[in-house]
Amino acid sequence: MVSQRFRIKTPTLAIVEVNGQKTTMYVQTGEIITVVNGPLDGLRLVDVEWNGGEAMMFTIDLRERAELINETSATG
Q1: Which of 15, 26, 31, 73 could form a disulfide with 11 if both were Cys (CB 3.0 to 4.6 A apart)?
Q2: How far apart, in Å, are the Cα atoms of 28 and each of 2, 20, 41, 42?
Q3: Per residue in 43-62, pLDDT tens?
Q4: How far apart are CA 48 and CA 2, in angstroms?
């Protein structure tokens, strides 16, 4: 869901654009991503904010390789 934040528990694939070309990178353990577009259902890709930019990630990866965090756990 939009604006939900997740902490990555295991390195997870993300699709990013570099110099106008789509490529893959891994979001490393402990990094925080924020969903900016798309529902977390099925096997779809969702748009996320990560590392100061935008990326796409599979919803199944977020469900299985990340943990939902809330504002209190993100600050403490």
Answers
A1: 26
A2: 21, 23, 23, 23
A3: 789 999 998 999 999 999 99
A4: 9
Count of positions (residues) in the chain? 76
pTM value? Answer: 0.83
Q: Which two tokens stand for residue 24?
A: 């893959």
Token pair, residue 44, equals 């779809």
The span from the CA of 12 to the CA of 30, in Å, is 11
CATH topology (fold) of 5-75: SH3 type barrels. (2.30.30)
* 43 burial via Cβ count (<10 Å: 0-12, 13-18, 19+): exposed
**CA-based max dimension of the chain:** 38
Hey, where are the domains in the chain?
5-75
Question: What end-to-end distance do the CA atoms of the chain give, in Å?
Answer: 23
